[in-house]
Design goal:
This protein has 429 residues and is of the alpha+beta class. 32% of the residues lie in helices and 16% in strands.
Length: 429
């Protein structure tokens, strides 16, 4: 019966001895009490991660949680590769560590968005300018007045790549740019909220490259990666690092309509195709601004901590406090996203929390961040003075693990009490 259930749910073999697949960065983790948490509360958060792992949908999980700028958790559980649903007992297994880079998928959008805001801070662009002001070819078929800000806030009218586009076009930036320029928007006046799963990144990348004469990878290196001392934190990885990058696995039950239709509409391919693409070296080595930044959980937590600090990191001003404010300012009220068909709040680049409840938990109106393919969650909650990242390697769009994800977010919110401005230590007010 257990084997039948495992096959139906498409899950991994969860080891009986969890300690054998847990790695903890003891040197960097601080005592919860030192940052206003309790040992019991911290244990509840970690138990929620263990419960998620026990669902069998996540071959590996990395967690990094900063509170008041200090690392409370920097740890991992599971296998980088070798324990997928279709792997055998004879497949070589490699245990994950907190230093394992993971593809962030759509959580990459938060980083790309801040790069565009930094470009605006430098005076190179105005977010209210039409994309076509910088890239005239984008004006085709009614897109002349679509602004950079609308692209950032998922109101650009081009939420999906054109139907029947070959999937390998994703790493042919010139060809996909041509297709996006020729496409007709579903709306050109910014009133149509529809999540741009992959398309917006190509548009923003092209604007940045046109204005600066640099690749987006070079600009990321210059503005964020090197100043913040990141080891990874690149769009894709070099060929020599392919063996280090965590493998992703399609998990969970087989999808039917309407979920399968929604995924294909947003990502341009069915679930089987997506499963092939995410571990394709061509995807892993490409530069896909909306979907393939590679980083550790600590690195993306570090990025969001910098945002919470008002753009400052270790004495370096990565960007101005005003740039951070502009990047997290709500654009439009809570409404149904016509791609994901759920109520969402966005800024120009971030997914926002809400009160009394939001994507980042209860009373999360001051929170912002981004998810990646449903199961990766990276966010800041300034009221709780936290920067949290949960990176997973199981791609399961629906399934029995969803309650465990919700309970994890709620456990973080519950056990990281809201703090006053006077209690914050270096947080962005």
């Amino acid at each position: 019966m257990k084997k039948v259930l495992k096959k139906v749910l498409n899950t991994i073999d969860v080891p009986c001895d969890l300690d054998s697949v847990i790695s903890i960065d003891h040197k960097r983790e601080v005592a919860p009490e030192s940052v206003g948490m309790t040992e019991k509360g911290a244990e509840e958060i970690w138990q929620s991660v263990l419960n998620l792992y026990k669902t069998g949908t996540q071959p590996a999980i990395e967690l990094c949680l900063r509170r008041k700028g200090e690392i409370v958790f920097n740890r991992s559980i599971g296998h980088v590769r070798g324990n997928g649903p279709l792997d055998t007992p004879y497949t070589p297994k490699i245990v994950a560590t907190p230093d394992t880079p993971v593809c962030l998928f759509s959580a990459s959008k938060a980083v790309t968005a801040l790069l565009i805001h930094i470009l605006a801070e430098d005076g190179s662009i105005s977010l209210l300018d039409p994309v076509s002001y910088y890239c005239p070819e984008f004006a085709q078929n009614g897109k002349k007045n679509i602004t950079i800000h609308q692209i950032l806030s998922h109101r650009g009218g081009i939420p999906g790549i054109p139907p029947n586009t070959p999937i390998d076009v994703l790493w042919d930036t010139d060809e996909i740019w041509r297709l996006l320029c020729e496409s007709k928007p579903i709306s050109a006046d910014g009133d149509h909220l529809a999540y741009h799963a992959i398309t917006g990144g190509y548009v923003l990348e092209r604007v940045l490259q046109t204005v600066t004469g640099k690749t987006i990878q070079e600009y990321l290196d210059e503005k964020i990666r090197k100043p913040m001392g990141m080891k990874y934190f690149t769009y894709g990885v070099e060929e020599k690092d392919l063996g280090t990058l965590a493998e992703n696995y399609m998990t969970g039950p087989k999808l039917g309509f309407p979920v399968s239709w929604m995924i294909k509409r947003a990502l341009g391919g069915d679930v089987e195709t997506i499963g092939e693409v995410i571990n394709d070296p061509r995807f892993q080595e490409a530069v896909i601004a909306a979907g393939n930044l590679a980083a550790t959980a600590e690195e993306i937590s570090r990025f969001f901590q910098m945002m919470s600090n008002g753009g400052e990191w270790n004495g370096k001003q990565i960007c101005s406090p005003l740039t951070i404010k502009r990047s997290v300012q709500e654009y439009g009220s809570l409404q149904i996203d016509k791609t994901m068909m759920v109520p969402m709040r966005y800024s120009a680049g971030m997914m926002l929390g809400g009160n009394p409840v939001g994507i980042w938990g209860p009373m999360s109106g001051s929170a912002y961040g981004h998810i990646g393919l449903i199961n990766k969650m990276c966010w800041v909650d300034e009221a709780r003075d936290i920067s949290c990242s949960l990176l997973t390697t199981g791609i399961s769009f629906v399934g029995h693990h969803i309650p465990s994800l919700v309970m994890f977010v709620n456990a973080v919110a519950k056990n990281c009490p809201r703090v006053t401005e006077k209690q914050k230590t270096g947080a962005f007010a």
